[in-house]
Amino acid sequence: MVDIAIIGGQNGDEGKGKIVEYLINSAEKKFSNFLTKSVLNYRWQGGANAGHTVAVDGKIFKLHQIPSGIVRKNTYCLLGKGMFLNPRKLLNEIKELEEQGIKVTPDKFGISSKAHMTLDYHINDDQAYFNLEEHSSTGSGIKQTARDKADRIGIRFIEFLDSDLMIKILKERNFHNTEQFVNSYQKEREILDKFLVSEDEIFANCGFDFVIAEGAQGIMLDLDDGQYPGITSSNPGLPTHRPKKLLGVFKLYCSSVGIKDRPFVSEMDELQNKLHVPWGEFGTTTKKPRHIGWFDVVAAKYSIDVIQIDYIGGTCLDKLEYLHKIGEKLKICIAYEIGGQNYYKWDVSFDKRNVLWNAKPVFEEFETWDKTYVNGVLNPNAKKYIERLEELLGKKFVLLGIGPKSEELIVDNKFVSELGL
Ligand code: GDP
Ligand code: MG
Fold it and tell me: Staple 44 to which of 82, 301, 387, 407, CB 3.0 to 4.6 Å?
């Protein structure tokens, strides 16, 4: 059985959804089995604060909680125990998928009994932060759900489905209008009830040929390994169920939503304002323009090392063509200059929260190109760019994204055969 996790190597929005979708499509072709589902696609963290965009057969699917594999026929999708689920948004997401012709039924979709629920009171509390400009919260109530989980007062999916039990738990917390509040979720309870599964049993008896864990956000937002305190409330770098291989996805530049709490050393100057529209850099969930920067080698190397990533994939190489069009140079950040010293490698001193605010990027420049990939040949300047990154990161890109569609990828054959695809 192949067992791999797809993990964001940067600040999220690296294009993980597309890579997951590509691998699932290949696995379905290889392992098609009409009696049972051959692929298991699960998420282990995050919630409605994430957003994946998947483009298949001319259709664009915007997913927030449901794994990318839902758009395929022979894949079972699981919302796993480390997630924070918003039941109201989940209903909307299911409805939107069904309107786009994707059936969401218990034979292809399940929700772990142990996942924690994000409820209206979490969201109301978070919205207060969301409205403050530049705050990194998506206003989705994730932090509040995580806080209740750690505080042992969270409501898990299995409890959410039992309205009497949920009333009892909330009453113990001196919650007001408990019955009314719990009853306001009656529709969600009725619709979601059929998706309740034991995640433990799914893994114990799985029999899937291909298991693919799908991360949300990225390692630099990891609760433990990210740029604390500018992090998310879960562990994008720590998949559950011990996948055998980890694939880190890196956008070939950098983007970041909300940088109030998180220094963005390689951030571009005003040039980024010319790139938001052509590069589509607006949050899938928040719709806010993302901050854009140059590829940060120091952070990327750290991400690879800190969770021991096996493979790396690069996305959005084609988008860099636009720099050629507007006559701008292409850069990467190879070091941080702090107090007159250049740091080429992540350093323990960066953990102290004021240090990176004072770091300046050290850049290396590259020639740009107009067409990334023509008749199966990578443009020589694009090739030089990729090879230099590979040299600095000490790993080869096994996948290179050259367009938004899931088939617009340059794929390393050795990688594919190692995965048995
Ligand atoms: P995720 O959260 O990591 O799955 O990434 P998002 O879906 O939030 O953002 C990635 C965006 O880039 C999506 O709109 C993708 O369709 C798009 N994308 C992914 N890979 C490529 C690529 O290689 N080229 C281009 N042009 N777009 C890409
Ligand atoms: Mg995203």
Answer: 82
